[in-house]
Amino acid sequence: MKKTVLAFSRITPEMIERLQQDFEVIAPNPKLGDINAQFNEALPHAHGLIGVGRKLGRAQLEGASRLEVVSSISVGYDNYDVAYLNERGVMLTNTPDVLTESTADLAFALLMSSARRVAELDAWTKAGEWKASVGASLFGCDVHGKTLGIVGMGNIGAAVARRGRLGFNMPIVYSGNSRKLALEQELGAQFCSLDQLLAEADFVCLVVPLSEKTRHLISHRELGLMKSSAILINISRGPVVDEPALIEALQTQRIRGAGLDVYEKEPLAESPLFQLSNAVTLPHIGSATHETRTAMANRALDNLRSALLGHRPQDLVNPQVWKG
The D-isomer specific 2-hydroxyacid dehydrogenase NAD-binding domain covers which part of the protein (predicted)? Predict the structure, then answer.
């Protein structure tokens, strides 16, 4: 008898067709009623879950008696109660690496947009305000040659650093849990404390995973250490930044600006950030390209198939539960 897979989001008809070669597939459909009700009804039958964007822990999974694996179509896994999955012996997989370059592209799009006031001046131009050459009040700031600070020098951080150093001749400073000697040699990057980075960098790019240690890593004190001319870029997770503190820093022009793809609450329907011309706000699109989302989905599908067919998944977050 085939095992059952519950596919709950970001699942294309092509993926369902591939899954059906090996498994029974249940895919909640909004046309058939409440998605949550469909999910909860199917959960007790599921040996595997695949999708993203749903919080899964003890309360949500208690009835999933057959569950063997949760395959997340994401790099981050802060939506999942890993300790509970470990307790249950349920495998958790993610999709690292495949979104590195796309997310780094977006970091630089935010950086450039914030520095050169692209979104603000686009709206200004479309509103018919361009009646003469722009004056100093609408000038942006240069990117080339400025100091780029990377907080969290993992794969994505390194990809951002390469764009800055090799593309824009930017000196690189970085902070994190460990030094990256090969990257220091490649890019001339300098390892330093977070406080030193904040004081020196013209652009501060956050690329850390969310944990209790990094929650509100950037708050009033840290924003106070930044240059008044500096710009903050957040492509990590929203709660890494104390959002009210950032809003205050932007309103008072304590820092020049911010480029944000993530927020403490998502989706973000209403926020003082939307009223600020020095904040570029995007709807969490770090990996949102056709190519990358397809690659992520395929990677998640491969992880799921491996787990349910008795093989060790390539991207196992909690290897201690592997019984192979």
Answer: 108-286
